[in-house]
Amino acid sequence: MEIQVIDSDNKEERASLATPNASDDFWFEDLGGKTYSGKPVTEDTALTNAAFYAAVRIRSHAISTLPLILYKRVGDNKERATNHPLYPILKSSPNQMHTSQEWLELVSLHKDIQGNHFTFIIRNNGGQINQLVPVHPNRVTIKFDADSKEPFYIVNGDTHNPWSMNEVLHFRDLSIDGVMGISKIKAAKQAISYGLGLEDYGARFIQNDASSGVILTHPQSIGDDAIKGLKKAFEDSRRGSNKHRVAVLGEGVSIEKISIPPDDAQFLQSRQFSIQEIARFMGVPPHMLSDLSKSSFSNIESQELSFLFNTVRPELVKIEQRINKVLLANSPDYFVEFLFDARERADLASRYKAYSTGLNAGFLTANEVRSFENLSQVEGGDVLRAPLNTAPVGEEAREIVSNAPDKNQPIAQRVEVLDPETRALPGHVILRDDFQRDFRKTASEILEEEIPQLREILEDAPTAERLQSKLDAFFLSHSEFVRFKIEPLYLRFTQRIATVNAEEAGKDVPDIDEFVEKLIASAVLRWVRSSRNQLDALEDNESRLKRLDEWEEKRAGKFADAESTQVQGAAVRATFIAMGFSRLIWRTRGDNCPYCQTLNGKSVDSNGTFVNAGEDTTVEGLPPMRSNSKISHPPRHRGCDCYITAE
After folding, report:
1. Concatenated DSSP letters for 53-70?
2. Whether this model's pTM surpasses 0.85
3. Out of 22, 443, 463, 522, which residue is the most buried by the measure of CB atoms under 10 Å away?
4. In the chain, what is the greatest distance between 2 CA atoms, to the nearest angstrom?
């Protein structure tokens, strides 16, 4: 591959990172010397060991499938630096040959096998990075300048002057001298050799028809020639067409097995031990290498989380810091991060339950939680909240209602000082008003991710069939992101509703976890369906792009109004049922719409419906309002602010 580089004197040169010849490559060199099993371990032979190959593959895939994103710092927040020339190089295509996933896979593979990976930075005539080219570690030599003591890199077969450390991304594994990483093959050579020996033994055992070795005993003392003849005669009697036939031994010769069958010699246990040893060296749970001997359904999840945080995460940090140090040294406002949230999501509910405890107990702020989740800070998010409510603690807290003088009080006490109309409202209604901003903020964050990607798909102007295929793929993956964003909000909101309802009813806080899980799944489906249906309803991409512009302006507010009421109504109904109330009553707020006024005071069984599917609500002088589905709680329509109470 011919590349253009800039040397230390800013002179343009042509260089060739040509494919090395056999003399440049020590791929088949024995890396670890002799082993106790006698099986030599090289990079080539190590990868024939099933457990080692699987561990290398799992590690490389765990790292390479995570998106690598370039961000720009904006105050205390961050945004994707999509206009930076490095953004597409890191996220999609580092060079002409490799995708980002393939490049990161090479980084992990070389580090695991060789202990080091080298990617060389290629610049254009203007000195701007336009390619990142990986080179096999066996072709690279590190030397040190006699005067400056700085390292430089020599590539076998390359005509370029020595590459400075600012022209190379050197990713190293554990290192003793801080210069070169330790090869895992070298470190684990005994474990790998042991596994290779077991595989070889098992293969030879099967090759011999699962027959063990034997001793032939002659009753008399015989010479060497006679011994050779007897051995040959016996072996010939067991070969070819004579296999599995009975051998007749004359002259009083007896036969005795000398090796123990693998089952009796705990051959399978030895294989398991070999897998477990390799798993230890590679930091991979044994069950990922198909060894389930010590795994159960209850501990597999914890093992996988341990793998993510104790094995994968440190490798990601190494890669991030090396890229930031070398590629972005002169751009302090920019940094790279892997989107690790997809991996963390395995234990999302546990994390957010802990966050909710911290928020409600008053020792965590919203911005502290957001920083844990790698999210941007929000205005007003540095205020602690008092126990038993979500009211801010401190003088700079935002007001839930304009004339509420003390936000440190529980809702049950706080309503006593509100205006007469608000005082009559149950606590969950005040909570909905308080959470409006949170719903709007969450929707904005989803749209910040959704709109640019949809705009990119639409601007490609593919055929109608291709467009549908791309939209299918996008929304399939995007639904996970939507869930990731809304789940903490819904968990926190519904928990507060359950607490307030129980407080006002004088009952224990009910367990509604199963209901909340279904509620979140429904909310994700509503969001994705809304996005997809709106785009599908338009005839051309120009109209669809205009709709995206409308989303930026209005959709977050519409979502907050509708969804806060939807979630509140569903959660209130679920908590009342869980607390044992048998009937529910529909309530309106002030001078509500005439359609909702027809429902005001209506009482139904707790499992009943206020409006049946297909039922019309009629108001004199107005067209009937038909319900497309049964309504068991507010909202009755878009913009509805009704609520329900228990009877």
Report:
1. HHHHHHHHHHHHTS-EEE
2. no
3. 443
4. 122
Q: Which residue has the tokens 């109904």?
A: 573
Residue 329: which of 175, 129, 151, 150 has the closest Cα? 129
- Whole-number Å distance between alpha carbons of 52 and 315: 18
The rounded distance, in Å, linking the Cα atoms of 512 and 447 is 29
Cα–Cα distance measured from residue 175 to residue 181, given in angstroms and rounded to the nearest whole number: 4
What pLDDT is attached to residue 457? 86
- Say if CB 397 and CB 380 are below 8 A apart: yes
In this prediction, residue 319 carries a pLDDT of: 95
As a residue count, the chain comes to 647
Mean pLDDT per block of 10 residues along the chain (647 residues) reads 32 38 38 52 71 87 90 87 92 92 94 91 88 92 88 83 89 89 74 59 53 67 75 67 56 62 49 72 82 64 79 92 93 90 53 71 77 72 59 40 40 40 60 83 92 87 77 82 88 86 84 87 90 90 91 91 87 89 84 80 88 86 85 82 84
Cα torsion 63, 67, 71, 76 to 10°: value is: -80
Distance CA 549, CA 555 (A): 10
Signed CA dihedral, 632, 636, 637, 639: sign only = negative
Do residues 356 and 365 lie in contact, with contact meaning Cβ atoms separated by under 8 Å? Answer: no
At 32 the pLDDT is: 45
Helix (H, G, I), strand (E, B) or coil at 447: helix
State the Cα angle at 155 between 149 and 160, rounded to 5°: 85
**CA terminus-to-terminus distance, the chain:** 78
CB 113 within 8 A of CB 136: no
pLDDT of residue 350: 63
- Residue 245 makes CB contacts below 8 A (sequence gap 6+) with 237
The 3-class SS string of 289-323 reads HCCCCCCCHHHHHHHHHHHHHHHHHHHHHHHHHHH
Distance, in Å, from the CA atom of 345 to the CA atom of 340, rounded to the nearest integer, reads 9
For the stretch 9-26, what's the b/e string if a residue is b when 16 or more beta carbons lie within 10 angstroms of its beta carbon? eeeeeebebeebeeeeee
Q: Could you tell me the residue ranges of all domains in the chain?
A: 2-43+93-183, 213-258, 349-574, 581-647
- Taking the alpha carbons of 592, 595, 597, 599 in that order, is the dihedral positive or negative? negative
Q: How many CB atoms lie within 10 A of CB 474?
A: 18
**Do you find a cis peptide bond into 285, omega within 30 degrees of 0?**
no
**Three-state DSSP class for 206?**
helix
**Cβ atoms within 10 Å of 436's Cβ, excluding its own:** 16
Neighbours of 128 (CB within 10 A): 9
Counting other chains too, the contacts that 173-177 makes at CB distance below 8 Å and 24 or more residues apart are: 173/111, 173/112, 173/115, 173/116, 174/115, 175/115
**Residue where the block lists tokens 């969450």:** 442
Q: Supply φ then ψ for residue 16, to 5 degrees.
A: -130, 115
Quote the tokens at residue 106.
Answer: 């090479």
Cα distance between residue 516 and residue 487, in whole Å? 9
Looking at residue 550, what is its pLDDT? 93
Q: Are 41 and 32 in contact (CB under 8 A)?
A: yes
What 3-state DSSP class applies to 564? helix
CA-based R_g, the chain, Å = 35
Element at 439 (helix H, strand E) = helix 427-459
Is residue 341 a contact partner of residue 484, using CB atoms and an 8 Å limit?
yes
* Structure confidence at residue 301 (pLDDT): 66
Q: How far apart are CA 66 and CA 369, in angstroms?
A: 22
